[in-house]
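Model it.
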Amino acid sequence: MRPKIPPYLDGEIDEIYEEAGYGSKTEFIKDAIRVHVERVKDES
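Modeled.
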């Protein structure tokens, strides 16, 4: 099952991923997930 990104968040992602230097929305999201996982590990 694919996660559903709320429309407001999808729009925000579209506005910033290129400005942040990412080549695609997928690349931006994968990097955000990586950062989140690292933070969770650090808190453990």
